């Protein structure tokens, strides 16, 4: 699924620098995970002592995950600001994302110094803060987008249906990442001495990046929907047909005669703005 989305996205975009850097981080993250799995499952097969020490790649992927997640959430923060024009909400998204980045980097740096998985128990609070910040950022993004879009309802059926679709996109782009971050947080809290949370954490960066790709890939379909609303709708009223003539004493009298229709035409134009 990830490769398909990347191929579709590459064909539709013109290599924007931010998106190109995000793809590089995603590829590098996958390479680090592959190296870590190869080390534990192939190179250190049947060597239980290897499980006592984290390899450099499994710690380095936390750096990449934190940076990649920050880039994606900054894109969403810009989207929130462009839709809501609420600087405070956008600042909250940036703040919680920065907290997740800072604590994640601090956790990984101290893990390199500790050199064993047992030492991670002394700095577990940093991981809790990082995952909590990620969950908070995703919830704020989804809530802000849905609230701003809900206020944009006009009362027209077609326009409101498009707003509903946009709200569903906003929710779907954040719900999986929120659930994944919460699941990682819960499993790390319940089983801090096991590797259950690591498997979930591996997927977190992929889900966040794929949510961004899904949002970008949906723009063409949303554009077609908007263009369908922007076509001119002409509503013709029943012609008011009459003729008139002057009669004696200056009175104005309606009479039957040649009919001249009066047509009322209503043109509807919808102005849209693409938000990335």
From TrEMBL:
Tell me which residues make up the DUF6534 domain.
134-221
Does the keyword ATP-binding belong to this entry? no
Q: Where are the transmembrane segments?
A: 24-46, 58-76, 88-113, 125-150, 162-191, 197-216
- Pfam families, alphabetized: DUF6534
**UniProt entry keywords in alphabetical sequence:** Membrane, Transmembrane, Transmembrane helix
**What is this protein's name?**
DUF6534 domain-containing protein
């Amino acid at each position: 699924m990830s490769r398909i989305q990347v191929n579709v996205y590459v064909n539709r975009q013109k290599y924007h620098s931010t998106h190109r850097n995000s793809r590089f981080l995603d590829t590098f993250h996958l390479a680090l995970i592959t190296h870590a799995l190869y080390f534990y499952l192939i190179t250190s097969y049947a060597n239980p002592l290897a499980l006592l020490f984290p390899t450099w790649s499994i710690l380095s992927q936390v750096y990449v995950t934190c940076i990649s997640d920050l880039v994606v959430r900054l894109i969403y923060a810009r989207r929130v600001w462009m839709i809501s024009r609420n600087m405070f909400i956008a600042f909250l998204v940036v703040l919680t994302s920065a907290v997740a980045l800072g604590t994640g980097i601090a956790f990984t740096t101290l893990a390199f110094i500790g050199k064993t998985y047992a030492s991670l128990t002394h700095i577990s609070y940093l991981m809790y803060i990082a995952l909590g910040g990620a969950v908070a950022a995703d919830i704020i993004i989804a809530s802000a987008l849905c609230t701003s879009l809900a206020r944009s309802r006009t009362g027209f059926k077609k326009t409101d249906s498009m707003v509903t679709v946009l709200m569903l996109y906003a929710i779907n782009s954040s719900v999986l990442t929120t659930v994944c971050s919460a699941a990682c947080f819960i499993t790390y809290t319940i089983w801090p001495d096991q590797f259950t949370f690591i498997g979930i954490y591996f997927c977190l960066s992929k889900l966040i990046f794929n949510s961004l790709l899904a949002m970008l890939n949906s723009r063409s379909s949303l554009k077609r929907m908007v263009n369908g609303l922007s076509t001119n709708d002409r509503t013709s009223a029943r012609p008011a047909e009459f003729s008139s003539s002057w009669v004696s004493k200056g009175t104005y009298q309606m009479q039957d005669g040649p009919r001249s229709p009066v047509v009322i035409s209503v043109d509807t134009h919808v102005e849209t703005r693409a938000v990335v």
